[in-house]
């Protein structure tokens, strides 16, 4: 059954939002990878990388971002 023009517009907007969320998820994944690489470098192998100033805060921020994007994507898929 074809959609009305108004519903088609809303549908297209939702598709755009989902595309943007996927882009943000991908971007966050790359940030996460670079962060993890930084924590595992040879200079960090000497001690606990989370003892460096700001590391715990950055880890928390990454986790919050992951949770928000996960929650938004879950809402869109329902």
From TrEMBL:
It comes from the Eukaryota. This is Uncharacterized protein.
């Amino acid at each position: 059954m074809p959609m009305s023009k108004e519903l088609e517009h809303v549908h297209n907007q939702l598709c755009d939002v989902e595309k943007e969320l996927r882009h943000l998820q991908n971007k966050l994944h790359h940030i996460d990878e670079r962060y993890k690489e930084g924590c595992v470098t040879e200079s960090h192998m000497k001690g606990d990388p989370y003892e460096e100033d700001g590391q715990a805060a950055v880890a928390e921020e990454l986790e919050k971002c992951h949770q928000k994007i996960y929650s938004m994507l879950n809402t869109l898929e329902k």
